[in-house]
Please model this.
Amino acid sequence: MAAFPYLFEEGFEGSDQGNFDAISPDPYTSASIVHYSTLAQRSDVKVAPYRGAYCWMKNLDIDTTDHYVQETGSMDVAADGTIFTRFYLYLSRDLTMTTTDEFAVMQHWAGASTVEAGVYVNYTTANGYRLGIGETSASSFLPISLGEWHCVELKANVDAGGGNDGTLDGWLDGGAFTQVTGLDQGVFTSAVFGVIGQDAGTTAGVVLIDEIAAASQRLYPIVDRFPE
Model:
């Protein structure tokens, strides 16, 4: 049986950044690669990594500094190219955000840090907690529950150049977002995963990320071998 042709894959099982090219800031001040035993001791989390013994964690209580892992080679995408990116996301039950607060948990960048596509956690009093997809901010949303792992997948078809025809499709636990269209994008030169753009009103909570993969075709949620 042939292996699945991932462009990139990382589950943090080496207890470090693994296949990612860089972390920021280096060293971290409020993020880390954590072991299951650390999560089990936290009253606000008490969950295992989605798979294996380690995952990425950001403590939102400590500071609002951007913390992320960055890949600058395997997720490059040319004009009119397409990439699928899947990762697992956990938001703790004590997540505290002020209405209209939003932060990114994944972004595709052009050049040094120009945002071309992303996945965002959003909160409003009227709508509650939502996951969104969009370019520099979320423009298509689905509700997201706290205190459990979710499968997130983003398909980005990059603007062919000049036509403002870039598109984003996304899935949350296999359910589709409304497509985002008409994007004016540069080519992708890196991808980042973490917490980027945390507002000052986001004052509590923990974000976990695990099992990151990218491919040239749809990945879908991981199928449990022994479902509960």
Remarks:
- The mean pLDDT is 95.
- The helical segments are 36-40.
- The radius of gyration is 17 Å.
- The first strand starts at residue 8 and ends at 10.
